[in-house]
Amino acid sequence: MDLSLSDDPVGLTERQADGGSALSALVRAVETRADDESVHRLIEACVAAGELRDEQGTLVPLGDGPYRIKRPDLSASQLRQLDVLVGRIRGLDLPVVPHWVAGGRVLTLQRHKAIDLREVAGRSTALARWVQEQCLESLAEFSEQDALLRTALTEAGCAPLLGFPVGDRHLVAVAKLERLLRTDVEVPAPMPGGRATLFCDPKPANFLVTGVRDERPERIDLDLMTYTCPVSLQVILALFSHPVQLPGTGSLDNRFAAAREEAAARSLDLGALPGESDTMLVYHLIRNFTSSYAVHGIEARTKARALAPLLACALEQIPVTAAAEPARRIRRLIEQERQE
User: Residues 98-129: pLDDT tens digits?
Assistant: First the structure.
């Protein structure tokens, strides 16, 4: 049965028994690039009809096509902010896959056979460097549009943006590390004193490509743009997200130091304060190491083992920390695991 996009959501739901469905109409609307209002109404119809299989924070397929839908862990005011943002981004020269927000869900259109940049980074050192540059370039592009996007939120009457809770997360992560290592870990809280922008979260996992080097990677997962975040942390995510590929050759200590210097320089270029990126790097590595180590499973433990030597380097190298003993215990912990 043909379901016209002009039908209201209730009508769509009532007519499913006649052989049509809100879901099939939604898929067709996305495929034909229908107007936003029609897509929004159809998402709401699918929610009302119970046709969307989703879980909180989980990305699941929509139908048989390259469509994904999830129910993000956002408040109603944040969902409204995200709806305004994705609508405004659609009119900018930013490589972002189509997004729609309605019915408490986020629907994205993604291409068949697309892979994220984590897989690309693992193919070679040269490609890993290309991936980092793509992440940093995207951060710079979003940063340039930050004022315009904030204006769109203000003009739409949205609630004030929340700051990303770096400080709270830092305290939780350090406490976990102290319990794991059975020793005090004296590191300072992250120092977010410089510029903060909408949190575009420019890590490799949030970019899709269908080829390598022959196209501009497209962004996915814009949920965190309902927060503001220091540019220094966003630079760290671009350069130090797992799997981390350090530049150059030589010892791990030297390559880590070079990556730290680049993170500091890139952060300063975007408006961070001197020393800010180091505190964000320590926070990032502690949080990701402890969260991965706490999860049972090969993938999580592989990530923890990969991040452990980087965290040890950070605790030893960064002047604002006094954590030589925790660094030694981290190395011993991972070495014991490898021997088991």
Answer: 888 988 888 887 766 788 999 898 888 888 99
